[in-house]
Amino acid sequence: MGPLGWVAVFAAALVGQWVWASEFPFFGYSPQLLLVATVALAARRGALAAMSAGFVGGLLGNVGSRRLFGIDALAFVWIAYGVWALSKNVDTSRLMPQCALTIFMSWAYAALAIVAGLAFAGAPQWPGWAGCFVVPFYNALAAAILFEILERVEGRRGLR
């Protein structure tokens, strides 16, 4: 899949996140599809592409939220770099490592949001305890589906 395919993935994640969060939340929560797409792109294509796409996707995702503007862009850049760094030692072609990496990066996202909120807004951007325990597993489920779709579209040749 080329760059236009990944643009389509991020556009679908952005629209899907807005629709899912507003219309179909499970127990008041929904997966962070932009974070999942950033993890997938970093695992499959490397840091630079994922950092760029995550930054733009994070800014666009913050447009419709009441959160500190740019906090998602900053977090997704760091998440993309972290996934890329970890993917050198983790087999990201299998389902369990993909889901575990997504859960770990979801917790890292929450920690980054808290620190950035304290640094830039004077108050933590805390998602709450339930958000820290429920959303990462929703993200892992979404990641399993997205990685399977990407595997079928790109095939094994898409992995580094």
Descriptive account of the structure:
This protein has 160 residues and is an all-alpha fold. It has a single domain (3-158), classed as Orthogonal Bundle (Arp2/3 complex 21 kDa subunit ARPC3). 75% of the residues lie in helices and 0% in strands. The protein is built from 6 helices and no strands. The two termini are 13 Å apart. 37% of the residues are buried. The mean pLDDT is 85.
What can be said about this structure in brief?
With 160 residues, the protein is mostly helical.
- Write down the overall geometry: globular
Quote the distance from N terminus to C terminus: 13 Å
Radius of gyration: 15 Å
Q: Determine the CATH topology.
A: Arp2/3 complex 21 kDa subunit ARPC3
Topology order in helix (H) and strand (E) letters? HHHHHH
Strand fraction equals: under 5%
The residue fraction in helices comes out at over 70%
Number of helices: 6
User: Overall pLDDT, averaged?
Assistant: 85
The major pleated sheet works out as:
none
